[in-house]
Amino acid sequence: AKGAGKNQWRRYQAHLHGAMVERLELRSALDHAVHEGHFLLAYQPIVDLTTDEAVGFEALVRWHHPTRGVIAPAEFLEVAEESGLVVPMGRWVLDQALHTVAQWWRTLPRSRRPYVSVNVSARQFREGNFVEQVKQSLAYAGVPPQALMLELSEALLDGGHDAIWDDLAVLRDFGVGIAVDDFGTRHASPGDLRRRPVDVVKIDKGFADDTTLIAGLVTLARTLGLTVIAEGVESPAHRDLLIRLGCPLGQGYLLSSPLDGTEALSRMSGHLPL
Ligand code: C2E
Ligand code: CA
Ligand code: CA
Ligand code: CA
């Protein structure tokens, strides 16, 4: 029995070791990807539910792995966060998204120019001069700050992130839009929201079938004068509910999957109906 226990322990050790090696390998592959620029962005339309027009596009990162193909963020974001690689990756995402929105703006008439919405992680503020980086990237791409929205997780509304909100206030005064992502998951209070520089809240896709909760979140947001975007709109019934509740903007597979930059432009130009 003692021998069996020992064998089990060895197997457990080998398993742990395997998981650690896998993580280290992922990290070094990711490091390589960041230096080689092996990423791409997909752009998912944010749609006016009453007119079907796209008002903006959320930029979603994918790892374009040379042998494994396209890898979703769920598989590498945790390692990117832990290792700090999310900082240089985030810089690439911002530059690439602004480069793409600049192309759209050059092509489209003034009345149809969408913004691009970029997810940012707290580490990007702490490591590196984020405010200057955003201003420089906008200038380099040649688009005004109104072409950019930044998405921050609702978790940042909790205490202890004042320095980040100071930076966001500067960017918002400059003209960049600020959105709170995953809205409803952390029960931010009206007071938390009111004292932060926020324009938009995005209702988390996890609430798609909770009518009462969605109604409450929409009412709260509207009371505070915030724009609401509902994520995870997958059915006509969900869309109709949102329209009835007074939430005019949605994002989700019913409206459109994430697209590449060219497809996104085609939709905006009206070649493909939304
Ligand atoms: P998120 O910010 O909540 O982004 C929305 C996610 O929902 C995307 O997954 C999108 O493809 C997916 N989605 C879109 N429509 C539907 C729908 O109708 N139903 C459902 N169930 N899902 C839908 P994706 O692209 O896999 O991204 C996952 C998460 O990775 C994002 O969640 C975001 O938190 C993070 N992420 C993506 N790009 C970046 C980035 O550039 N930087 C950072 N820091 N995080 C990113
Ligand atoms: Ca987001
Ligand atoms: Ca979200
Ligand atoms: Ca989410």
From TrEMBL:
<protein>
    <submittedName>
        <fullName>EAL domain-containing protein</fullName>
    </submittedName>
</protein>
<feature type="domain" description="EAL">
    <location>
        <begin position="23"/>
        <end position="272"/>
    </location>
</feature>
